Amino acid sequence: MQELKPIYTVSTDCQDCYKCLRECPVKAVKVSSGSASVVHELCISCGHCLNVCPQGAKRYRSDVQLASNTISKYKAMGRKVAASIAPSFISEFSDLPVSSFIKAVKMLGFDIVSETALGAEQVSAATVKYLQQEKPDVCISSACPVMVEFIKKYYPSQAGRIAPMFSPLLVHCRMLKQIYGEDAAVVFIGPCAGKKLEADSNPDLLNASITFEELRGWLDAEGITPRHLPENMERFSPNRASNGALYPVEGGMLSGIKHGCSSVESSYASFSGIENVRKVLEDLENNEPPSPLFLELLACEGGCINGPLVSDKKKLLSGRANVLNYANYRKDNITDSPEVETRGEYRIEPVIPAEHRPSQIKKALEKVGKYSTEDELNCGCCGYDTCRNFANAMLSGKAEPSMCVGNMRKIAASKLDSVISALPCGIIIADSGSRVVESNRKFAELMGEDNLAVYQSCGGLNGASLEKVVPFDYYFKQVIEKENGFIEKEMSSETGVLNVQIFTIEKNQLVGCIAQDITEPAVEKEQIISKAQEVMDQNLDTVKKIAHLLGENAAASEDILNSIIKNSKKTGVKK
């Protein structure tokens, strides 16, 4: 078994945005030191995180080298190497003649190119026999390895309802070994991350699993261009598949099952997408179906043609049409495949959630500033549906307090207020609507007794109209429209002569102003800069963490402080 798991995280690329955690259907993600890693014991290898990670930090393991080494090793021993091709290949490589595709794969060194759909047909036939003989109340298809993993781990009470057959891929592996020798090697090629997990779990049957993307890269590396290959007489071995080719689309398995089960009174239903399947399983947990029921459950919405590793996610409709047309076209001249053993047992390994005492949860919530149910916003920004689920994750070591964006916003506001209040010069910040966003007491003092009175009675000037606070608001409007706008003026006020510096913090969004009374004998420019730098240094780590977590629009804290220091240094104060 390989040491590197099918899905993993490149920690240096992770920007702790928690999108993978928000999107993961089973929360198989642990955040530590700001990096989100996959918890493999919880993971079902659905591959969804591969598609949603904006930084590409979630990767799937490349098995091209393993496949290539397998070919070299087995050929040196005089053994056959077969490629098991997922039926969704016709959607992925719809621009290629089938014979050219087969030829290209063989040019990589494969002796046999066969359709996984042959294994699917064996599974369908075995499922029909099982339904006829055993007559289960509910039977869940075993075709999707991700769904099997999902049920085993998170709905173990329903695991006994999974049809007792191996997946189509593993049955196909058995078939290929039965035909070409038990010592033959098999490499799967398809769109599914879950198949890599199957290869790891069944090394005696499946030597490696690579994706269509890996196949394209491998062909490119070998200088093989399938579209330039002429049509030829290459065919799938040992024969074509028929209705098994429908498996990659939602409802595809049912078409074969229904045909074989015409004498069995049973209901049939197909559901795709993990959240839809979750609802079905929850329903089964609480209610018994009114009649015998067969369920086709697929992890990917629409089926395997919409797998996590298909090259074009926009081809769902055309991909389905390609599969249906291809399957229908091949109904003639189909020969029967040899029967093969399909039975397989599944070891149930349920995920048992950790239980924490109410007092522990209460303390965990208090760590993120939540002291009552009113404080529990359940906003989901941390990646968990509720604040209590987040608290449970913290107690289980899967989450960190800094993931709570609401609490970090409070800290950001508090830090910004503390830093600005500590500066020995007047500070005011306004938005594009000429409303005060932040200010300190010193600025109110410099603007006169009326402003100071308002500041004291209201606890600040926030929300006030800029034109009512300062007599030079028109300078703010000039500066905010520029990328690095800056204006310095000296002007009279009720308290003395002011040196005023107005500068852009965020173009068209925020503008700042530093004001100081240059007639005060104790004022020293160096003191102001030194004090600003001191409070900045004291709070830098927290401010940077807040800025990183909240993103550009909410990360004004660091920008504001840096702007204050930079613009304080631009010019000296006249004595």
UniProtKB/TrEMBL annotation:
Sorted UniProt keywords: 4Fe-4S, Iron, Iron-sulfur, Metal-binding, Oxidoreductase
Gene3D superfamilies for the chain: 3.30.70.20, Electron transport complex subunit B, putative Fe-S cluster, Fe-only Hydrogenase (Larger Subunit), Chain L, domain 3
The EC number(s) this enzyme carries: 1.12.7.2
Family annotation (InterPro entries): 4Fe-4S_dom (IPR007202), 4Fe4S_Fe-S-bd (IPR017896), 4Fe4S_Fe_S_CS (IPR017900), Cytosolic_Fe-S_CAF (IPR050340), Fe_hydrogenase (IPR009016), Fe_hydrogenase_lsu_C (IPR004108)
Domain called 4Fe-4S: residue spans: 360-421
GO MF annotations in UniProt: 4 iron, 4 sulfur cluster binding; ferredoxin hydrogenase activity; metal ion binding
Boundaries of every 4Fe-4S ferredoxin-type domain copy: 6-33, 34-63
Listed PANTHER family: NITRATE, FORMATE, IRON DEHYDROGENASE
Protein name per its UniProtKB record: Iron hydrogenase 1
Species this chain originates from: Sedimentisphaera salicampi
